[in-house]
Amino acid sequence: MPMTVPLGREGGLFRALRAGAAREWDAYCWHPFVQGLAEGTLPLAAFRRYLVQDYLFLVQFARAQALAVVKAESLEAMREKGRVVQAILDETKLHLVYCREWGLDEAAVLAEPEAPETVGYTRWVMDQGFRGDILDLEVALAPCTIGYGEVAMRIEAHPGRLRDGNPYENWIVQYASPDYQAVARGAAERLDRLGESHGGAARIASLTRVFAEASRLEADFWQMGLNAS
Ligand SMILES: Cc1ncc(C[n+]2csc(CCO)c2C)c(N)n1
User: The Thiaminase-2/PQQC domain covers which part of the protein (predicted)?
Assistant: First the structure.
């Protein structure tokens, strides 16, 4: 399994969660679906299934991030989370363009029902926000944002990584880009700061359960793609 230097700072909340949920985190970040992306061997049908559901996922994920505007700890954090919501809503439009390149037209994507894995993951994240505070919600959101940064780094570090003629090259490059890596790093740093301000150390057991469950739901999402092939 390719290893990378984790994001966040040593002794910070993100690294504590990542270590506490190492089994679920590794199963997510180095899922067979991810290995298939890296080696260019993932069946095209698995990726198409993933792409369609990922559009539906993004719409629901924007709603979950909007809940973080509501739950934010400060006016500055509200502004920052508002920008995250806008970025995801813009991303949904680009996602439809990307789907089109994969032969999936807009009408087909919009007509697709949400899979149980998509409903299960996104509504569970929102529920963590409704029942808890901003830290519970950010921990539930973290595997999505930070995880894709680590997934891309692991793919880049994989000795079996195919570059020439890999059908998934532009997907990989999108998340390996300095721009996306900065987003992932920023999310890990925000989690570390919230850990300090919101009593993360005293809450580590319950926060680790939330982080592990989100990681498990991410792995289920990859598996949903593989199950279609
Ligand atoms: C199942 C699934 N999990 C994570 C992502 C990655 N992702 C979703 S929204 C967003 C913007 C930052 O919050 C990022 C990186 C995805 N596309 N699909």
Answer: 25-227
CATH number at residue 169: 1.20.910.10
Q: Is residue 96 part of a domain?
A: yes
* Mean pLDDT, range 220-228, rounded to an integer: 97
Cβ of residue 220 lying under 6 Å from some atom of ligand 1: no
Question: How far is it, in rounded angstroms, from Cα 229 to Cα 75?
Answer: 46
Number of domains in the chain: 1
Q: How far is the CA of 87 from the centre of ligand 1 (A)?
A: 11
Give me the interface pTM, i.e. the ipTM: 0.94
pLDDT in tens, 95-123: 999 999 999 999 999 999 999 999 999 99
For 89-125, letters b (16+ CB in 10 Å) and e give: eeebeebeebbeeeebeeeebeeeebbebbeebbeeb
Helical segments of 102-133, H only: 106-111, 116-131
Is residue 68 situated within a structural domain? yes
- Whole-number Å distance, alpha carbon 29 to ligand 1 midpoint, is 13
- Pocket of ligand 1 contains residue 144 by CB under 6 Å: yes
Q: What's the pLDDT at 1?
A: 65
Per-residue pLDDT for 4 more than 90?
Answer: no
Question: Is the beta carbon of 54 within 6 A of some atom in ligand 1?
Answer: yes
> How many secondary structure helices (H) and strands (E) does the chain include?
11, 0
Closest ligand 1 atom, residue 121 Cα: 1
Mean pLDDT of the chain: 96
The whole model's pTM is what?
0.95
Distance 145 CA to ligand 1 centre (A): 6
